[in-house]
Write the structure tokens for this entry.
Amino acid sequence: MKHLISTADLSRAEAVTLLDTAQQMADTQSRQIRKLPALIGKTVVNLFFEDSTRTRISFEAAAKRLSADVINFSARGSSVSKGESLKDTALTLQAMGADLVVVRSYASGAAYQLAHAGWIEQPIVNAGDGTHQHPTQALLDAFTLRRHLGQGAGSGLDGLHVVIVGDVLHSRVARANVHLLTTLGARVTLVSPPALVPVGVETWPCDVSYDLDTTLAQGPDAVMMLRVQRERMVGGGFFPSQSEYSRRYGLDADRIARLPQHTIVMHPGPMNRGLEISTDAADSPRSVIVEQVSNGVSVRMAVLYHLLAGSYSPED
């Protein structure tokens, strides 16, 4: 694995290896000294053209716990905001001695372009590009699912049914999860208002439903709620009103009560409480939303390690 651009690029064996390594990384975080010397001398650059405090901090924490040096590069206030091209920015980072670049962009395909345009040789990790992909989010979601519902090390997610609900049209998380979860053996059902379903979704390896209650009656193993991305809904018209959206597609205490006892509730964050998920649902004993954030650091440690150092041993 040279880069991590899309979950569609991962084989089942590669995905399972990353999850296994993430578990080993997570185990080291319960020690008194959590820092590992694995990436001493390496420099990780967080290149963020789009704001995302949660993801940036998670990557920064992951790199530092592996003893790498970290440079945070924000487009706001930088030369990029003055018109510098992506190519010139990449060449600048290479000249500064970056060993790996984590890139987040509002433009779909930016990470792929960095990885394959021939401008730099360093590994590229996609931290979210437009509405395209967010592979490390999908990996941390799969890691969380496996810890609660899977068979442990060496296993995938065979036989699990995961329901992903909400604004699929604008969600890179949904796209990344559909590919990864099905690669790992899970069955995925997308539930969304018709206006928030992407063109071409029939080619995705998943089922599509427009009725949340009917889908939840199937007794899924996990329900993942997506943030309604109102900032991308220019012109409106995607659903009648917020109250109507919550009534038809929101997860609340009543819907949770009808789920099997083992079903977990997930959300990639940040949440619109009271819109796609109620406070009762977000804070219920079924919710693993806070754990997803914690698991993100372990997963990103695993990704950085495999791209910069190869296979992992707990003694490293």
